[in-house]
Amino acid sequence: MDLLPNSVPLATQLRNTLVQYHSIGDSEWRVAKKTKDATVWRKPSEEFSGYLYKAQGVVEDVTNRVVDHIRPGPYRLDWDSLMTTMDIMETFEENCCVMRYTTAGQLWNIIAPREFVDFSYTTSYEDGLLTCGISLDYGEVRPNFVRGFNHPCGWFCVPLKDYPSHSLLTGYIQTELRGMLPQSAVDTAMSSTLANFYSDLKKALKT
């Protein structure tokens, strides 16, 4: 079990990595899934042998409220159908924490439940916010779970220029699920999960 990292350089490095992903040109992405709520693209990850996914859609709410529903906190468990438990293990500053969470099985349980321990950081970005995270090798793995690993990932949320009460939400996700899994099953699950994330989030914000 590793010791907790120093939060300040890790947060800075994480933010810089996400801003770098956000500047990747359109030509490098391939559409993986399109729904009325979101478009999901992917490209080979530079972190591991899977894909870096990009998801984007417009959410009809103000930036702060959208991000409050995404970042670690009481809202997330209420609406995110994939997340089954979440505990804040350590808090550094108000916008930095380490959380442990578990996810439900997917694809008729071909993908068994997973556990993650993530460092999470929320900061300002342009006129909006960026909430981002990366997994840590920290804490004992619970029985009955495979420990997955999130390479740098995050969500940019900025107000739409002409409709400030609406937000453009762009996510970058690269999850290494680990365990013995066919890659095609992982790719199918990731695209669908990200598209569903938008529809579930929109429903939650309307309630």
Automatic annotation (TrEMBL):
Residue span(s) of domain START: 10-207
A Pfam family per the record: START
Any GO molecular function: cholesterol binding
SMART domains: START
Gene3D superfamilies, sorted: 3.30.530.20
One cellular component (GO) term of this entry: endoplasmic reticulum
Name under which the protein is recorded: STAR4 protein
Source organism of the structure: Aramus guarauna (Limpkin)
